[in-house]
Amino acid sequence: MTAPTLPRPTVYAIDGVIPVIDPTAFVHPSAVLIGDVVVGPGCYVGPCASLRGDFGRIVLQRGSNVQDNCTLHAFPGHDAIVEEDGHVGHGAVLHGCIVRRNALVGMNVVVMDGAEIGEESIVAAMAFVKAGFVVPPRTLVAGLPAKVMRELRPDEVAWKSEGTEEYRRLARRSLATMVACAPLEAEEPGRGRVDAGSSQPLHKVKGG
Hints:
Blueprint: E1 10-12, E2 20-21, E3 26-27, E4 32-39, E5 44-45, E6 50-60, E7 65-66, E8 71-73, E9 79-82, E10 87-88, E11 93-95, E12 98-99, E13 104-105, E14 110-111, E15 116-117, E16 122-123, E17 128-129, E18 134-135, E19 139-142, E20 147-151, H1 154-177, H2 202-206
Parallel strand pairs: 1-4, 2-4, 3-5, 4-6, 5-7, 6-8, 6-9, 7-10, 8-11, 9-12, 10-13, 11-14, 12-15, 13-16, 14-17, 15-18, 16-19
Antiparallel strand pairs: 19-20
């Protein structure tokens, strides 16, 4: 008997416009994609993410990730774009903005219309990036509203890139091994761990 497979992602057309998901991308079945959404090669879209292309276009470029409980939306005629290797943490909200190549948007960040998160920059968790604000490349921004704190060090950019590569690998792992299943009733002896790589929190990396 073959193992059960995951259900297909929750996808809706509107006004005849159908979402696009590259075959090498992984979109969790509980995520919702509506209308003008384009998910590129090697992307990862996590559980309960909402990509609503019912007003503006939503684009995820190659190798980017949008994690669980994220929301992407835009005003009519505007786009929400995550460029190549963009990294959007749990619970973030992106509205009509651009996340440039290899940038990181932290957990529970809100990025408003017309804002631009610069290439290889990091937006700290819980920040609010106001409409039209442009984050310079390779900088750290934080706060309510977000302000530029300093330039990023090379090791911090490398840490970000390593984490994003693990999400690219997660897309491949999920396509290859994730299946719907019933839970065990008890923990088995010698229980293994998932093959999650070696990425560590930034505070651990800084502390050696």
